[in-house]
Amino acid sequence: MNHWSFAASLMVVLAGIGGVTLAAWLGWGNWQRNGRRGKVALLEVLRFVAVAMLAFTLLRPEFVRLIQRTDPPQVVILSDSSGSMLTRDIVSTNDIITRADWLEAQTKRAFWKPLEASSEVLTGAFAAPPDLTSTNALGQVREIGTDLSGALDSVLGQQKNLKAVLLLSDGDWNLGPSPIGIATRYRDQGIPVYSVVTGQDESIPDLAMEEVAAPAYGLFGEQIAIPYTVQSHLPRDVATEVRLMQGTEQLASKKITLPANSRFRDSIMWYPREVGEFDLRLEFPVEPDEGLRDNNTAAFHIAVRVVKLTVLVVDSQPRWEYRYLRNALARDPGVALSCMLFHPNIGTGGGRDYLSAFPGSREMLSRYDVIFLGDVGVGKGQLSKKDAELIKGLVEQQGSGLVFMPGRRGNHLSLMDSPLKELMPVVLDDAKRTGVGLQNESALTLSSRGRGHLLTRFDADEMVNEQIWKMLPGFYWSTGVIKSRPGSEVLAVHSELRNQFGRIPLLAIRNAGRGKVLFMGTDSAWRWRRGVEDKFHYRFWSQVARWMAHKRHLAEKDGIRLSYTPETPKVGDRVFLQATVLDEAGFPLENGEVNGSIVSPTGRGEQLELTEVEGGWGVYSAEFSPQEGGPFEIAIDAPEHDRELETKLTVSLPKREKLGRPVNRPVLAEIASITGGESAGTDQLDQLIKKISVLPEPKPAEIRTRLWSNPWWGGAILLLLVVYWTGRKLAGLV
Fold it and tell me: How many domains does the chain have?
């Protein structure tokens, strides 16, 4: 049962024969010219053998051994035990049952009996939900999902006389590599894969609360936006109400309309009235025609804290915008306000909350969560370039917020020649230094992004919120702006002016390092007080300050602060940690020892490698990738300076196995097609069994030894050539 196999073209064969013939002719000639000596004959034989071996190698020879199988052929039946198999969509005897129930009924009747006459039948399950209390070898909870490729690969590696595989699954592949790759290996070995598609091709009529992305914490007395996602598989629009619940108590509600067969994203606003840790849930009523009634709710955890923000307002003169902003922040019990007023030709302003000089050092400036820069720039009697550099470092490294509020004097343009240029969310128009004045009143028009953003939210209902913005008093002056910069988000535009780039952006935000930046292109937000006092003016700037300072207060203790991105990570995400550490005197720590550790929900601990970030702001960074869901305990300490912080970071485990989704028929059909098998529905199970029973037995096992790529064969050729060349030198041949 053994033979040689060659894979060479006719041209290669002819070239090989020619090379061997030429080597023989040259060897005979050399032997004749050298007196027919024995040594010369031996050398020429060595060369001829080496050339012949090289020519033989060009034919790509393979020695094939065929081994007859003596064991009975094996048929493996794989049953899907994943969570999606609990979907109830299979019609059976005038009743609708789950995919798992149908599979259990078929298993009880031993549908594979006809195969046992000619084959060994092996049954098994894959993608079973793990026991969340058990862990793998690394101490991690195994992720819940369906890995079709892993299941098929495991069978191929364990069974040596495999005849066929029967796969009973809904095809909901959501973990591991594509199963198409393993299907090609089955095809190469001549093993067909048959599949029975368990379920329907259309989704069950249903509504599901898919995800709630609540922030890690909110501030007491302030509104908290809780984003959520609802998936609709109903063929009609649904008017319903989302309710925020704590036990049986309703904390907030919002009426929404869910479009037919689509995913709906929105957020609900909550005003917490007490401090503490809260276990809440979002839910909405079950519709009469829903097929599933237990997925209309989602639970989450959130903390409510009292945090006092430290804010610095800098301007050049007491214009109306500055006065009303200062008064609003001064009356805010959650804000510690400092002001810096550069009076032109007079000197700095004084009074309660006023600074006599700009805090021009890292240790003095690092206490501020948000800085407002009004009609002020870089120059004599204003900010210095060093001040601008410090503000840039504070925003990028310590995660503080920066608000640009230009005025009619045009001082903001001088900031474009300073390090703050990189932080500006818009491109300013140098030709309009003093801005654009209008005789008629204009207004801010919300963009599509601004309609749903927290900063521009005056009412939980987006329609009502947009009407409020339309009714707000407008402005008669705006900053000269060309367009927004790449990476910025435009929340509102000029209602009248436009250029070749579209409407002029007047309210824009962007991320800068670890911090956030906002640009307000008008000086008339104070006019929003008309008839309503502080209702909208205070609300807007309060939301701005808290939104910008949010990340700085995720976890903090005296002299140490920890922020992380993303705020609500999922398993497999890269989580970036930034620890800001101050020494005993309140100065940012430089070249200090900062240690960190993290303990997973299953108790597995590891050390964090905290690296100091250049710049001298006392920032130390690290990253990790959580492989399990639940609360992670993080500890950061600087032992030399008695700084220590402990906090918890909750990592969510993605819910890959979802009920109600249609079967993934295409992937099962493609696996069957590639391997030479067949895919069918649940009503054709017995027919597939008959087809598998008449399959021919597996061919003899084939073992190929590729001589042309064998290193020993190449080494032998090289050895012959070395011996030949050395022998020529020793024999005195040229």
Answer: 5
Alpha carbon separation from 74 to 66, 127, 208, 674, 702 (Å, rounded): 19, 22, 43, 20, 18
- Residue-wise pLDDT for 277-307, tens only, equals 899 999 999 998 887 777 899 998 898 888 8
Q: Are residues 264 and 293 in the same domain?
A: yes
3-state secondary structure of 707: helix
Task: Specify the amino acid at residue 22.
Answer: L
Rounded to 5°, angle at Cα 537 from 532 and 542 = 130
φ/ψ of 98, rounded to 5, equals: -75, 160
Per-residue confidence (pLDDT) for residue 290, from 0 to 100 = 84
Give residue 633's identity as a one-letter amino acid code. Answer: E
Backbone angles phi, psi at 45, to 5 degrees: -65, -40
158 and 114 share one domain: yes
User: Do β-strands 426-428 and 481-484 pair in parallel, antiparallel, or remain unpaired?
Assistant: antiparallel
- In whole angstroms, what separates CA 730 from the centre of its chain? 69
Over residues 245-259, mean pLDDT: 91
Do 26 and 102 lie in one domain? The reply is no
DSSP code of 129? P
Answer whether 360's CB lies under 8 Å from 390's CB: yes
Among 289, 305, 321, the domain boundary falls at 305
Q: In angstroms, rounded to a whole number, what is the distance separating the alpha carbons of residues 700 and 515?
A: 67
- The CATH number assigned to the domain holding 516 equals 3.40.50.880
Report DSSP state, residue 114: G
DSSP strand pairing (162-169 vs 74-80): parallel
CATH number of the domain within which 593 lies: 2.60.40.10
- What is the pTM (predicted TM-score) of this model? 0.70
Distance between CA 399 and CA 404 in Å, rounded?
16
Contact, 412 vs 316, CB < 8 A?
no
Q: Are residues 343 and 472 in the same domain?
A: yes
Based on the number of CB atoms within 10 Å of its own CB, is 160 exposed (0-12), middle (13-18) or buried (19 or more)? exposed
Q: Which domain holds residue 253?
A: 207-305
Rounded-to-integer distance, Cα 70 and Cα 64, Å: 19
348 and 453 together in one domain: yes
In tens, the pLDDT along 663-679 reads 899 999 999 999 999 99
Judged against a pLDDT cut of 70, whether residue 130 lies above it is answered with no
User: Rounded distance, CA 697 to CA 704, Å?
Assistant: 21
